[in-house]
Amino acid sequence: MIPAWFRKAGLVVLSSLLLLMAWQAIQIGRANLSYLAAHNAAEYWRKEKLIPSQESLQSALMSAQKANSIHPNNPHYLLTEALIWEWQGITLNQIEDLSKAKLLYLEATQYRPTWPVTWATLAILKWRLNEFDEEMLYFLYQAERFGPNRKEVHEAWLEIGLHLYQQKHQYTAKLIKPIRKHLRAMLGSHDKEYHRSAVNIIERHQAQRLACSWIQYDLNLAEQFNTYFCS
Question: Which Gene3D superfamilies does this chain map to (predicted)?
Fold first, then answer.
């Protein structure tokens, strides 16, 4: 027969475990609510193509930081805080905020190293920071390694590649083939969003003549996009 004191001790331990699990569940719930507040704000700005106010940026940033403080090492939460810092850096033209975003994106890669969009975002951040170095190339190649067909990866290669090509940067020779490959992939996609994105990037860099010369080797692309780039 089990002694009474042993049963009581077991009940105390079980109760403590249940309380601990309940407390952890509450904390996770709080973290998730804070994360969703920040994530939804950023999604709203993106979809509506808004320039967020400083107040809304700060509110979203506080929510993201709260989520990370409650539940650290969560890659989704890290990426969301990084995104808010990036938005703030772009909106308020604050380089230090972009640097903070970069560190958080890098931290997220420790937990999810195969997420290609994170690597592509890091490459774009290097471009925004005017840091054209081996680290930037590493980010681009990591993005291509894990997501060769992702729209965001194509966009990073085309955006950065066109900039470096027009600047006659020393990396142009290394990047010219991948740039052309990603341009062909975007224009050859069945998804019209890929087409629109490629055309927008080319127009933003005023690289229509360059794109025209590149697509002439593909008769299908030349026939479809000559009016955009070669007229």
Answer: Tetratricopeptide repeat domain
- pLDDT tens string, the chain, 231 residues long: the values are 555 544 555 545 545 554 445 445 444 555 567 788 888 888 888 887 878 888 999 998 998 888 888 878 899 989 999 999 999 999 998 999 999 999 999 999 999 999 999 999 999 999 999 999 999 999 999 999 999 999 999 999 999 999 999 999 999 888 999 999 999 999 998 999 999 999 999 999 999 999 888 888 777 887 888 777 887
What is the value of pTM for the model shown?
0.84
Distances (CA, A) of 200 to 47, 168, 205: 17, 21, 9
